[in-house]
Design a protein that fits this description.
The chain has 240 residues and is an alpha/beta fold. Bound molecules: S-adenosylmethionine (SAM). S-adenosylmethionine (SAM) binds next to helix 3.
Length: 240
């Protein structure tokens, strides 16, 4: 707890991200990732392999942009930096300790727009990724299901969830260059015996077709859940 509090106080971060809880979440994810290292390893390896295979398929690339970079646990930063002139990593928050090669920059921004809009009281842009358009590869990494979580806490609008996932998928579809989406397709909440308590069809509600590749990610495995529910995800890969 003391380490988490110290990290919270000393990490530079945009005002909206700190106020709304993105920094707190990012720190919590870092600690959960440590506790669940072995459970998350196959998911992280699969995600890295999918990103690399896209980068190789489309290379040489003038630019690669990664949305939802986080701690880069599932992003092969070094390998990607050799496959492009410029690699741009984007997340709401950049925690300390992420080492970047020379041609890599890390931007802190709201990739979808609703969080900053709610914080500032202004309307969200319909084209939040306009600055990153071009012939380069854009990859959304394990982000889609996360996008509405914090905005939902700040709004009574029951249509917000749907609007956010649709806008993100649409802004990826609008990208002129190649686009890869890696995201929770279905999220399962399970009781201690593995019975399904809740099934969330995230890809279907975002209007996505069946994914081209899929694997299971135990996000909250039994040892992490304790007496609470376990959470698992069927992660999908789409070329948009
Ligand atoms: C499941 S994590 C992705 C894992 C990450 N690739 C890693 O290796 O650590 C989801 C990420 O989405 C980011 N995120 C959520 N909403 C965001 C937004 N509106 N704009 C930018 N990043 C956002 C979170 O900060 C978090 O780092």
């Amino acid at each position: 707890m003391i380490l988490e509090a110290l990290e919270y106080l000393t990490t530079p971060c945009p005002r909206w991200a700190r106020d709304m809880g993105y920094l707190t979440e990012a720190i919590a994810i870092r600690h959960r990732a440590r506790r669940c290292r072995a459970d998350w390893q196959p998911h992280q390896a699969n995600t890295k392999a999918a990103i690399l295979s896209a980068a190789h398929a489309y290379g040489p690339l003038p630019e690669i942009t990664i949305l939802g970079a986080g701690l880069c646990l599932d992003v092969p930063v070094d390998e990607l930096s050799h496959l492009t002139d410029r690699l741009t990593l984007i997340d709401a928050v950049r925690l300390r300790g992420i080492r970047l090669p020379k041609n890599v920059r890390y931007l802190c921004m709201d990739v979808e727009g609703s969080a900053v809009a709610l914080h500032s009281g202004k309307l969200a842009s319909e084209t939040p990724l306009a600055d990153f358009d071009g012939p380069g590869l854009i990859v959304s990494v394990n982000l889609l299901s996360q996008l509405p979580l914090i905005p939902n806490r700040w709004s009574d609008d029951t249509a917000l969830n749907q609007r956010i996932v649709h806008r993100h998928v649409q802004s990826l579809r609008d990208h002129k260059g190649p686009t890869l989406l890696i995201a929770d397709a279905v999220r399962w909440t399970l009781d201690m015996k593995g019975a399904v308590l809740l099934q969330e069809d995230i890809a279907q509600s975002a209007g996505l077709p069946s994914p081209e590749q899929t694997w299971r990610w135990p996000i909250i495995p039994a040892h992490e859940a304790g007496k609470g529910p376990r959470i698992e995800s069927d992660v999908g890969v789409w070329w948009l």
